[in-house]
Amino acid sequence: SQTIHQWPATLVQPVGSPLSLECTVEGTSNPNLYWYRQAAGRGLQLLFYSVGIGQISSEVPQNLSASRPQDRQFILSSKKLLLSDSGFYLCAWSGGLGLSAEAFFGQGTRLTVV
Amino acid sequence: AQSVTQPDIHITVSEGASLELRCNYSYGATPYLFWYVQSPGQGLQLLLKYFSGDTLVQGIKGFEAEFKRSQSSFNLRKPSVHWSDAAEYFCAVAFPGYSTLTFGKGTMLLVSP
User: Fold this and answer.
1) Could you tell me which residues of chain B have a Cβ less than 8 Å from any Cβ in chain A?
2) Which tens digit of pLDDT belongs to each residue from A33-67?
3) What are phi and psi of B61, to 5 degrees?
């Protein structure tokens, strides 16, 4: 069966520090991968998605970037964190266009920038 | 532009009472439709989905949802709410031709004794 791992679960980082959140998927190949951010009362905001290795689409211009160095690995990064980067970050995967369109989510990372 | 609306930010229901959470979408054709549930500090879990066919779909935990094309709605229902159902609920749609899900802003369900 497919599983998705996301770490760390919680992170407290000072303003101006770098960020790296990692997400890996097991049990499937060539998944679509997604990074969402969730702020209180604002639902889920899609940040990045990827349909293949090295293919990244950015939905919202911001202080963050994403990379997909391997088929089942998706990384969210920042060179210098801002206070506004605080939030709950969720990684997700799906089977892709034309297949089961539902998304499966990791457990999330609570990022607090201080 | 495509959009998903959950008009209720918070809903409080007494334990044992029935529940209906509303979801409307804006799109020229029928999208794929989903309901997810999120417990505090956790990821999202899929409750049910609609792709085609029977417009009344059954999900996990006793939930069901009905797709009404004429109203562009996909409301979530449960006949008798349990205290463990307290969580945030998200409606989501996948529009044909797009690789991503679009989520509503969520409805927080509170269950009173």
Assistant:
1) 9, 32, 34, 36, 41-46, 49, 51, 90, 92, 94, 97-106
2) 999 999 876 788 899 999 899 999 988 867 899 99
3) 60, 25
